[in-house]
Design goal:
By secondary structure, the chain is an alpha/beta fold. The chain is built from 10 helices and 12 strands. Helix 2 runs parallel beside helix 3. The structure holds 5'-O-[(R)-(carboxyoxy)(hydroxy)phosphoryl]adenosine and zinc ion (ZN).
Amino acid sequence: MESGGPTHGGQSVIVRALGIETSCDETAAALVEADASGLRLIAQQLATRPEESAALGGIVPELTVRQHLELLPKLTRTVLEQNAALDSVGATAGPGLAPALLVGLAFGKSLAWARSSSFHAINHLEGHIFSPFVSRERWPDYPHLALIASGGHTLLVDAPEAGRRTVVGTTRDDAAGEAFDKLARMAGLGYPGGPEIEKEAAAGEVGKIPLPRPMKGSPEGDFSFSGLKNAARLLLEKDAEIARPGVRRAHFCAEAQAAIAECLADRCRAALRRTGRKLLTVSGGVSANRTVARALEEAARAEGAALLAPAAGWNTDNAAMIAAVTARRHLDGMASDWETDVDPRWAVGSVQNGA
Ligand code: KG4
Ligand code: ZN
C-alpha cells in the first residue's frame, strides 16, 4: 500500500474524485471515494458502440467524437446525481485518439473549473496498471511487474515504486487484443474478437490445427503476433472451410487462443526471472480471457510469484480506473496545469504528459 496522503489534525482526508475516459470508442464517467488506506467505487456509467465500429470496419474518428460529445454530459450527470461533493476531476489525456481525448479533457477541465475542484490529466495506461488493485478497493503494492494486454497495447512494465515505471517489453507489431480481433475476423467471427474466440474455443481442442508461438523462448523481452496472424492467413487461404461454423473453426479458435496465451505467459515468466519481482499483475481487455489468466497464473507460480488480475468488469476500458488514479494524484497533492494538452502518444513511463 502506498503511504501518505494529506491529513488534517491526524484525520485521514476523504477525496471524492470523478474520472472521465474518452481515449477510444468507450465514453465513460465514474466517481470514487478514497483516502490513504483505500478507495471504493460509488457510481459509474459506460457507453460503447462495438456494432457500429464493426459495421464500419474499425473506429471512425468523426463518429466517435460525436458520440463522446453527445453522451459524456449525460453519463456524467447520472454519475454525479445525489453526489454533490466533488474534490477532483481527472480525464484521460493519452495515449489514444487525439480528437477523442480532446473532448474528455476539455469537458473535465470545464467541470473542475465550475466545481472549484483540482484537475488531473491521467495516463490511460496508468489506469490499466491500477485496475487489478483498485478493483479490490486498495492502492497498488510495489514493487510489481505489470502486463497490459489490450486492443491497442501489449506492454510489460516494471514498477519498483509509486510513480516509477520502466517498459521492459512491448510488441514489435500487433497488440495481443488486436491479434484476437484480426484472427476472429479471419475466422468469420464478430468484433471485438477476443470474447468471440473464447466462446468458440470452448468446443475446440488445442493441437488439432497447429499455429506458431512467435518469440516463445526468446531471451528478449518483446512480443510479436504478426507471425501468428500470417500463419493463420496462409492456412485459411488453403482451407477456407476453417472459417465456417463447425468443429474445425472451434479447433482453430482454441489453438489461436492458446498460442496468444502461451506467448504472453512465456514473456512474463522471462521478465519475472530477469527482474526478480514476486508480484505479476495483468490488465486490459485480454486479461478477461480465462485461458490467458490460467497461463499467466502458471507462469507466475513457476517463478515463485503471485498473479493479480482485475476483478470482473475492470479488465476492459472504464472510467473507474481513471477516477482511482485521479484520487491518488489528489491525495499526493499533484494537480495538473489548466494548460495541459492531450498527448496521443503519452508513454506509460513518464508521469507528466508531453515529457
Ligand atoms: O482494454 P480494452 O477494452 O481497450 C483498449 O484499450 O484497447 O481492450 C479491448 C481488447 C479487444 O481487442 C478485445 O478483443 C480484447 O480486448 N478482449 C479479449 C476478451 N475480452 C476483450 N480478448 C480475449 N479474450 C477476451 N475474453
Ligand atoms: Zn485500454
